[in-house]
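We include this case.
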Amino acid sequence: MADEQNLDNPSPEAKENPEVEVTEDLVARIQSLEEQLAAAQDQSLRVAAELQNIRRRAEQDVEKAHKFALEKFAGDLLSVVDSLERGLELSNPDDEAIKPMREGVELTLKLLIDTLGRYQLVALDPHGEPFNPEHHQAMAMEESTHAEPGSVLKVFQKGYMLNGRLLRPAMVVVSKAPAQTPPSIDEKA
């Protein structure tokens, strides 16, 4: 009977050991679940951040597509602008026989340039400005006493920008300082 009493009424030590084991198991289980929860929250934040980045990149791509959708078309139209400008340069404004035709070409060119301007296509005509390798392409260098070295003397072909992005660089002649000639024998004496 004493054994039955021990089973029904376990000793204080026996009572403490199962509780200690259960408590340690619960603490370990709680720690494991908390770690899993922290990992899941971290992963959730990362996924949310990645989705936000994807959405932002997609919005930027759409914005760029809208801004620069005309890039190829506008680039193709530049040869038309160049041809009209060259035609005006080569024709004599004082020739009465071609005056009406010249006025028509001038109006057509103005209309084309105004239309391109409405779509943020801007001409770069850097005559007299300092050379900028980001917007200009140097075709030649020429000595000049009247221009600052490194400035644009002539523009062979205008450059163009579309929405702040270079579409075509301006082809230019850049000034350089005149070469110093060595003093002649007469000047030394």
About this structure: Strands lie at 121-124, 136-143, 152-157, 159-162, 165-168, 170-176. The longest strand covers residues 136-143. Helices lie at 2-8, 12-68, 71-90, 99-118, 185-188. The radius of gyration is 40 Å.
